[in-house]
Amino acid sequence: MKDVRPFPIGCLWLSALALGACATMGGGPPAGSQEKPDDQALALMKEVGGKAHGIIVWSSSRLGNHDLFVMNTDGSNVHPITHGEPVDWFPRFSPDGSRILFTRSKKGWVYERDANTDGKWDIYTVTPDGKDETKIVDNASWGSWVSNDEIIFARSTAIVRRALAGGPETVLVDSNQVPELGGALLQQPEISKDGHYIAITLRGSKRETGIWDLRKKAWVRTGDGCQINWNPSGQEVYWVHPTGNGGSRVLHLRVKNGKPAESDADLDAITLIDIPGRRSHEYFPQLSPDGHWLVWAATQRGHDHDIADYEIYLWEVGTPFEKAARLTYHSANDRWPDVFIPAAAQ
Question: Fewer CB atoms inside 10 Å of the end CB: C or N, the chain?
Answer without folding.
Answer: C
